[in-house]
Amino acid sequence: MWNQRYRWKNRQIREQVSVIDGQKSPTLLLKNARFLHSILKKWITSNIWIYQDRIIYIGEELPKRLENCEIIDCSGLTLVPGYIEPHVHPFQLYNPQSFARFASQSGTTTLICDNLFFFLHLNKKKAFALLNELNESPVSMYWWGRFDSQTEMNEEETIFTNSEIKSWLEHEAVVQGGELTGWPKLLAGDDLMLHWIQETKRLGKKVEGHFPGGSDKTLTKMKLFGVDGDHESMTGADVYKRLMHGYTVALRHSSIRPDLNVMLKEIHELGIDQYDSLVFTTDGSTPAFYKQGVMDMMIDMAIKNGVPTIDAYHMASYNIARHYNLSHHHGMIATGRIANINFLSNETEPTPISVLAKGQWVKRDGQNLINDKDINWKEFGLEPLNLNWELQSSDLQFSMPFGIEMVNDVITKPYSVSLDLSIDYLPQKHEESYFALFDRKGKWRINTIVKGFAKSVSGFASSFSNTGDIILIGKMKKDMLLAFKRMKEIGGGIVLAENGKVIHEIPLPLAGLMSDQPLEELIKAEERLKELLYERGYSFTDPIYSLLFFSATHLPYIRVTQSGMYDVMNKTILFPTLMR
């Protein structure tokens, strides 16, 4: 699709019309199909004709020709549109293809994805070629166009250039700008970001905000700047404020913010009984969270919390398609739409028995099917991490007068260090651990102390981070060095070492940031990592997000970045990185 101007060429449309005229047969006929008609907001029973990847007729008639047609009697089933996940971070250890395959098995057949990983780690030519390759999947994949890196990066202005951002915004696969993690710069007068928002709107695309705890005045200003939606509501009151200003509001249920039950209860208490501007998202959760499902999980929760059934399905399909101006292709079972259809046992069971995506079976009678070929990631420059530098014991010298204390999974604040940091190991009776961030090219480092990550993690290394730089954490410098060595040997990943041995590892051979394994296997590896970290004193919910957000400057209060120790509230570098 991204290699041509239109979704269907003239020749293809003529073929589709010839089926209606009885000159050709459809490729799939769904007889006696009870389905959700999203315009009428009713359950209708009709016959549905599909030709290749498109629904070409809905009504009482049957085709004149059936010689090349698969016929399915849908009696006893309920059909709903394929679900849409509007806020995907497809690089939380998994990769875009592995997540798409996994999500499709529970009925999520369209993804709207963050482009930050591609923006930071691939040149534009390779990134766009990869978008084309991913589009060959039965799952429909759309993208965002980021305006900022959500951290303090060295020479960020040479990466997020006007020409690069405009190239992404103009790409047909990109349907929104954002998310706006750098919105404080906009408030402070950054006219370049405002220009990018204006360009996004000129192109007829949406802008997604990121406003956790946003005040009424902030939400007002952001709406004036041109923001269309926000996914950071945590309470019913947050939802209400955003609806009052005309935002499309994503109700989130994720691995670090499992808020949906609370928000639904509170919005009902506030008297909100209209759902047309509400959508669902799992906001890029980590692998094990998806054992519960993807959008089907959220629909089920909504129905059980008193949301009318049709509205619950629309919040995972039609509402999203309408918001992104995609309803001519997605979000409903109707003539002319892409054939993304979920087959349910009944309307109160949103996890499908069978799934059609672009007219192909990706799940049939409970059996998962794979229809796309494995991507050759090396063609796009996504290879195992090759670190051509060595870590020395002299790199693990700690003398900073203050460290970072974890308030929860992702919030960190400063605290004064009173420990003797000249020793090679720290006692296990307290929560402090050595913490170091190393440039993935080995040029710089910053060493500090983290409090609250764990009490007895001896050596921990991760190439998974916000910018792809290397994180080391631990009580024992020898085990930290061992974890780093093993992480380097496997081409990037997450490694836990203890008493001179590696006790767990998760290889991430795609640039040291993503796995090439199926999500089902990755879930097992992540669950084991969590078990080991919990046993050693990690007291929060999601250690993977902790790694990702140590450098994330869109969250308070203190961050460890490529530029050094960064004070988010005052926007200043407290201690710069040191050259190695």
From TrEMBL:
Occurrences of domain Amidohydrolase-related (ranges): 78-362
Gene3D superfamilies associated with the record: Metal-dependent hydrolases, Urease, subunit C, domain 1
SUPFAM superfamilies in the cross-refs: Composite domain of metallo-dependent hydrolases, Metallo-dependent hydrolases
Keywords: Hydrolase
Gene Ontology molecular-function annotations: adenine deaminase activity
Known EC number: 3.5.4.2
Domain Adenine deaminase C-terminal: 410-571
Keyword Hydrolase listed: yes
Name of the top EC class for this enzyme: hydrolase
Reaction catalyzed: adenine + H2O + H(+) = hypoxanthine + NH4(+)
Origin: domain of life: Bacteria
Family affiliation: Belongs to the metallo-dependent hydrolases superfamily. Adenine deaminase family.
Record's protein name: adenine deaminase
Record organism: Lederbergia citrisecunda
